[in-house]
Specification:
single chain, globular, Rossmann fold, 3 domains, six-stranded mixed β-sheet, alpha/beta, 443 residues, Protein-Tyrosine Phosphatase, Chain A
Amino acid sequence: MELEAYQHTSIAILWYGAEGQSTLRFLLRSGIAPEQITILDRKDIQEIPDKHIRIVSGEQYLEHLQAYDVIFKTSGIPYLPALQAVADKLITQAQFFFDHYRGNVIAITASKGKTTMSSLAYALLHNAGKRVKLVGNIGVPIFDEIDFSTLYDYVVIELSSYMLQTLKKQNFISLLGSLFPEHLDRHGSKEAYEQSKLRILQGSDINIVFNSTLSLLHSLWKDSLPSSAKLVNCGKWTAYDWNTDFFLIRGEPVFPLRDVQLLWEHNLWNISAIVALADVLEVNRSILHQTIKQFQPVRHRLQYVGTFQGIEFYDDAISTTPESTIAALEALGEKVETLLLGGLDRGYDFLPLVEKIKKSQIKQLVFFPDSGEKIKIMLNWETTHYTMLSTANMEEAVKFSYAHTSPWKICLLSTASPSYSVWKNFEEKGDLFQQWIRVMGEK
């Protein structure tokens, strides 16, 4: 794709992580001269593909933003005052995609479950023989996957609240799943976060929405959705429901519940959205059945690691809010005896989680900094019966779990907080958890 409007302009790439590197590759292969490009990052950049690319790093990297005509902003960067002052110059990969791609786009978001639904949507369309791409927040930079000169049958894009915050779009189908407070340190309030998520419904021809989210949609956006957009309701007590034996479309059995590989109630809601998507797109029901039957759980999302020394270990590292940890506890039930909690303190309300723990059969608790100490205090730990460990070391946490968890009980990593106070991301946290489980379990 030739970026004619970007020729002879000064272009900055803000942050040189995976997305920033993807943007640089895209610009260079699109014919932008290296001399036009500047990389802006707080950290020192050691390696670049062309010596003519300029680098501005260190604490002052945001000082001269007015000097650039276009600034490609990594979606995870907050809208700091310095960025707000040059808002007209900012663009993200997601915004560029929606501005320039003209094919059928299926956009998906939720507080939790968006990766499962995006992966399922991709698998469904792939199994139906469609030319389909999966990009976005799922970890695949858009510019690395999308050839703008090609119209695919569908592009499935997973969107985070960060990506949606200022996004303007037109697309075919949007899917809005579960909503509960998250990223409050970034968005400033529960309402601002919800408004960011609800932006996914703007500019869509068809909106598929969880029944449990519908009341919030009507209370916040009752006058904001165009009358031309079709609203499809999914989940319990809708046309896309399930009973003890089958998934249903308008009361008609579609496939047996026993064929679902994704355990727990929240995943039944996620599957309901994909059943609705398949019905809207008129995908053959045998293909839908095959997709659901073959689909495996997303790594680090209530993932069964195995049974070692009689203890069942579950990795739910992706659960980084109190609500998602509560959902994990409800899914696994009273067998959970050891729970690993805590991480970056984003100001979440942990009281419902604390009450859930108090009513559970949990006997051992591991607390990671910083929010772990807050939860520990809220549990009134001096007067409780829990066996506790405060640590920033996963090896120590797993060793403690082996020493104290009873045979045939569950040890669960579901921290109710982001990972960044100790680990690079939830993947690193979950990988270390699984690594030490196997190392110690095989001794």
